[in-house]
Amino acid sequence: MAGHSKWKNIQGRKNAQDAKRGKIFQKLSREIYMAAKAGGVDPATNAALRLVMDKAKAANMPNDNIDRALKKASNVGENEHYDEITYEGYGPAGVAILVYALTDNRNRTATNVRVAFTRNGGSLGETGSVSYMFDRKGYIAIERANLSVDEDTMFENVLEAGAEDLETSEEVFEIYTAPEDFTMVRDTLEEEGYTLAQAELTMVPQTLVELDADQQAQLQVLIDKLEEDDDVSEVYTSADMSLFN
């Protein structure tokens, strides 16, 4: 993981995400509905639902929105169905792009994703064309401000909690876990009193690609177009997104 500061990527795109908050809530409601429909409305017994609810709270989604999605999922007559689809492609300078979608109309989503790629300097690839360039990981960030814990102590704590790796910068401790250990590590760190600035399952690129200014701008437009689609839930790239301001 060395050199792959996901925290810088998160901070580099925070303002853009904040501007899309209403649409993000709509997408999260759909994810909550699907998770609750599949495994029940109690996050204590539905790990997938708890992950989505944590994601919603991190996005400052109002409790009323979460409750509505849960109530909808608990209705016996409710029978909406969504398919989970992954699209793989390339952006400017060959940057790898993974697009996760949750859709009730495969044809509509496929067309929209293809148009977003082809009109903004990218191209769709075959299944498996770029997914091998990413690793599924649990990711936890703990900001160091007002935290009286040194790197050695934190390293011991995260290893004891079951994490795989720790990266340290002046601003943040970044912790990576195997996907199956993420919940255990997160809960352990919270029980030890740490405040988590970010905690999620994510796709981590094995290699980051640096772009020049024009390529950065073109990739940002492509990402924006993909994320504007109601069916797209996540977009991951191998670009060094900390360069985006």
UniProtKB/TrEMBL annotation:
Name of the protein: Probable transcriptional regulatory protein BCR24_11970
Protein's cellular compartments: Cytoplasm
TACO1/YebC-like second and third domain ranges (all copies): 82-238
GO CC terms: cytosol
Alphabetic keyword roster: Cytoplasm, DNA-binding, Transcription, Transcription regulation
Gene Ontology molecular function terms on file: DNA binding
Gene3D superfamilies xref list: 1.10.10.200, 3.30.70.980
GO biological process, one term: regulation of DNA-templated transcription
SUPFAM superfamilies: YebC-like (SSF75625)
Organism: Enterococcus ureilyticus
InterPro entries: Integrase-like_N (IPR017856), TACO1_YebC-like_2nd/3rd_dom (IPR048300), TACO1_YebC_N (IPR049083), Transcrip_reg_TACO1-like (IPR002876), Transcrip_reg_TACO1-like_dom3 (IPR026564), YebC-like (IPR029072)
Stretches the record annotates as Disordered: 1-21
Residue span(s) of domain TACO1/YebC-like N-terminal: 5-75
Similarity comment text for this entry: Belongs to the TACO1 family.
